[in-house]
Input
Amino acid sequence: MQSTGYGTSTSTSEMTMNPGNTLSNTSSNAHAAVDSAADVADSAIRKAKPAIDKVAQMAHRAVDKAAASATPAADWIGEKTDRLDATQKKFVNDTCAYISANPLTAVGLAVLAGVVLSKMTRSS
Output
């Protein structure tokens, strides 16, 4: 073994004399490098986890706030839809009752509406 500025290294004469030892040293060095990289990755994960948890918590709060804001609007739209449906049904029922009570007037109004629409479409 020779001491260099970067640690110890095996000389070529030592490698040729003991190839099994060189392979063992190389394997040990590789295992140490992998273990070191794994330790660095674990450390990075431990450091990043609180930040990730905080961002996730903020996102959950934002979604909850948006949902809480949207719920009253959805309820209001639902109420207006129900009212509109009721008004439409009442209008159709009233129209049917008027036509049943005044059939000749209803036919006259239908003819008049047809003539007016016809004149409007021809003049275009």
Summary: Strands lie at 2-4, 7-9. The chain has three helices and two strands. The chain has one domain: 2-122.
